[in-house]
Write the structure tokens for this entry.
Amino acid sequence: MNTATVVVVSVAGVAVAALAAFGAVAGWRRFGRYRRRRQIARTVAAAGSAMLQDVVIPDGSGGQLHLDFLLLTSGGLLVVDLRDVNGIVFGGEHLREWTVMDGNERSTFLNPLEAMYDRLAAVRLLAADLPVEGRIVFTERSRFPKGKPPLVTPIDSLAAEFPSPAEAVSERLREAWETISGATEPSPLARR
């Protein structure tokens, strides 16, 4: 083999090895995100005896609303809006935007309470006279040093706040759950 051929083969080999390494790292990260989402879903599911995840429901005005989680609990229905943000969160009921500080990085997001109130109203339309509650659940990566706004709870407190043994769910709640489950569709926003 001449020198040019050896160089081309060597460069091609290095390129293939680099692509394989990149693919392995990307695949491992994707698997880690998938595993984390499953663990979060299991933690949320512990608060109810049945759960729907990443669904849309009619909003009562001809549109649809996305629900991260809808749970059947012994006390009624629970709408959960999940927030997995890393850092210190500053938010309040009447603030337009909430701020997240992660080291030197600062980001904001719209106050999630307004969207939660819309979701609660839509579920109440479907649930008739059944109790419907909502929580904005933050994962363990978030901290609220100035206090938590209303309806905000850490993920590790959700099951304690809504203990739901399966046998405690009334027949009336189960029937309503079936009706509401039938009115949902898979969300196009669902993470794959």
